[in-house]
Amino acid sequence: MTRSFRSMSILAASLLAVLAILTPARADDAASARAVIESQITAFLNDDMAAAYSFASPSIKQLYPDQGRFFDMVKRGYQPVYRPGNFAFGRFKAAADGSDLVQEVIIQGPGGQDWTALYSLERQPDGSFKIDGVQMIKAAAPQT
Predict the structure, then answer these.
(1) What is the side-by-side strand order in the sheet with 87-94?
(2) What span, in angstroms and rounded, lies between the C-alpha atoms of 46 and 31?
(3) Engineered SS bond to 120: which of 68, 124, 133, 134, CB 3.0-4.6 Å?
(4) How much is the average pLDDT of 55-75?
C-alpha cells in the first residue's frame, strides 16, 4: 500500500511539473498569436499592404501570390477585419501538438455591426505564427 501510494505521488508530482512547464508555453503562444493578429489589423488600418501580407501563412500566399490581390480580397470579403472599430481578444485554443492555434477576436465592423472572427494560425518552422485563415461570424442583433 505504501509503495503504491509513493508511486502515485511521484506520478502526480511529475505530471504537475510537466503542466507547470507547459502552461507558460501556452501563454506565450497566445501572446504571440495575439501580437500577429493585432499587427496585421494595424497594417490594414494603415493601408500597409506589405506588412499585412507578411503575416499570411505560406498556403494563403499560394492562393494570393501577390500582396495586391491579398489586400483586395481582404477589403472585399473581410471588411470588419480591414476596417475594425473596437476589437478584443476572446478564447484561445491550441492543437495538442501546438502546431495550430485558433484565436477568437470580437470585432465591431463598419456601421457598428459586431462580428466574431476566428483566426487560424499555423506555427512556422522558425517557431513564429502566421495567419492561415479567418472565419467571420456575424453576431446576432440584440433583442429589444
Answers:
(1) 87-94, 100-108, 114-123, 129-138
(2) 22
(3) 133
(4) 96
The answer to whether 92 and 19 have CB atoms below 8 angstroms apart is no
The C-alpha cell that represents 32 in the structure block: 504571440
pLDDT of residue 21: 40
Burial of 54 (C-beta count, 10 Å sphere; 0-12/13-18/19+): middle
- Distance, in Å, from the CA atom of 73 to the CA atom of 133, rounded to the nearest integer, reads 12
106, 90 contact by CB (below 8 A): yes
Question: In 3D, which of 71, 18, 27, 65 has the Cα closest to residue 47?
Answer: 71
Q: Cell triple for residue 2?
A: 505504501
What's the pLDDT band for 97 if we cut at 50, 70, 90?
Answer: confident
- Residue 99's pLDDT is 81
Q: List C-alpha distances in Å: 8 to 12, 15, 22, 82.
A: 6, 10, 21, 53
Predicted TM-score (pTM) of the model is: 0.78
